[in-house]
Amino acid sequence: MTQHKDKIAIVTGAAQGIGLACAKRLFDDGAMVVLSDVNSDKLGKAVAKLDAAGERVVATTCDVGKRSDIVELIAATRNRFGRLDIMVNNAAVSCSTAALELSEKEFDDVLNVNLKGTFWGTQEAARLMVEQGAGSIVNMSSAQAELAISDRVPYGISKAGINQLTRIFAIALATTGVRVNAVGPGTILTPVTAGLSTNEEAYRRILSRTPMGRLGQASEIASIVSFLAGDDASYITGQTVYADGGRAYLNYTVPVPDDLPDLGLE
Predict the structure, then answer these.
(1) Residue 266 maps to a domain
(2) Tens digit of each residue's pLDDT (9 = 90 or more) over 8-59
């Protein structure tokens, strides 16, 4: 596919999981992709995996929790390519401390990366895109923006904030040619969730609240990101598209077979 041929894209948190899948999909769809992540070792491996020749993929170490890093990321992309067409704000962290035990540092660490990082990434990308008169920003939300999990306090708060941030920027930029949307994944098979292969109880619990009876694939999220970033979505802005296997509207648990679906891990 070539729907993003010669477009310039940035994906944050791109060293693995959903971020890497988004980078791969945009690359496969013709874009030149700047992979950004705080983990330089994994980032280098991701670039080699996508584009060993280094012709259409660039790696830039960036901590989105630092506004200065995002400013530098956007500036470096502009200096190298002259423009920015697609910004995917994907980088995120989480913690599992119970609500009454959560520390100020844990709260700040998650919101700093997830919410503030997405805000600065959206703002800096939008400034350049407004100059160009065109561009698409896709933020990574979560099903947890709508659903409450008691030991994912700052994560859920940050993702709910990303939804509102997305709507506000979409309205603010509506007449500039810049669109802002978000994707809200449910439980997706990534290196983080691969541990379910050895935790049957947790795997059953997730499937019991997922009507489609399986985990999502990172590539399924990436396909939505690519669509929202492209011309086929030219009249869509301010939306959060949930890809959660039907979880958001389930008011009960569903039966789980004795033989659990294979996670497909190699």
Answers:
(1) no
(2) 999 999 999 999 999 999 999 999 999 999 999 999 999 999 998 888 999 9
Is the pLDDT reported for residue 153 higher than 70? yes
Inside any domain, residue 238: yes
Number of domains making up the chain: 1
Q: What is the 3-state secondary structure (H, E, C) of the chain?
A: CCCCCCCEEEEECCCCHHHHHHHHHHHHCCCEEEEEECCHHHHHHHHHHHCCCCCCEEEEECCCCCHHHHHHHHHHHHHHHCCCCEEEECCCCCCCCCHHHCCHHHHHHHHHHHHHHHHHHHHHHHHHHHHHCCEEEEEECCHHHCCCCCCCHHHHHHHHHHHHHHHHHHHHCCCCCEEEEEEEECCEECCCHHHHHHCHHHHHHHHHCCCCCCCEEHHHHHHHHHHHHCHHHCCCCCCEEEECCCHHHCCCCCCCCCCCCCCCCC
Which structural domain range is residue 75 located in? 8-249
225 lies in some domain? yes
Annotated active-site positions, please? 155
The CATH number of residue 66's host domain is 3.40.50.720
Has residue 73 been placed in a domain?
A: yes
